[in-house]
């Protein structure tokens, strides 16, 4: 790989530092070490190339690691959202069943009340005469489409 190639080139040009040291040194220490070593232009260029490639390799590894961590976080979030969706769908089904039961109860009670309304002679009053129309405006029509 690049690091073994860099190590061979560093040995061939007798660089004062190993490639790992060139990459891992803080920039001030790196520059000071190169200044003390009195390197030729090709040696100096090689040392800087080794450092640049090493830093790039470390940055690429860090980037790949962050990407995998982000994918893992997104997968966990997707699982959590899927569970939340299922919970909400169950709650919606329960609410729809409860609403259906309430509508049936309301229809039954409305029919009983409207059936019990009588005039003074005991004759049943038509709901229309009271301004009432059974099952209209009481939410008994069923859910709206859509």
From TrEMBL:
The segment annotated Disordered runs over 117-146
Keywords recorded for this protein, A-Z: Activator, Coiled coil, DNA-binding, Nucleus, Transcription, Transcription regulation
- Per the record's keyword annotation, is Transmembrane included, yes or no? no
Q: Spell out the InterPro entries in the cross-references.
A: bZIP, bZIP_Maf, bZIP_sf, NFE2-like, TF_DNA-bd_sf
UniProt domain BZIP: residue ranges: 46-109
Which SMART domains has this protein been placed in? BRLZ
A Gene Ontology cellular component where this protein is annotated is: nucleus
Q: What molecular function terms (GO) are annotated for this protein?
A: DNA-binding transcription factor activity, RNA polymerase II-specific; RNA polymerase II cis-regulatory region sequence-specific DNA binding
Residue spans making up a coiled coil are 64-91
Gene3D superfamilies given for it? Transcription factor, Skn-1-like, DNA-binding domain
Q: Which Pfam families match?
A: bZIP_Maf
**What family classification does the UniProt entry report for this protein?**
Belongs to the bZIP family. CNC subfamily.
Record's protein name = NFE2 factor
Q: Which organism is it from?
A: Bucorvus abyssinicus
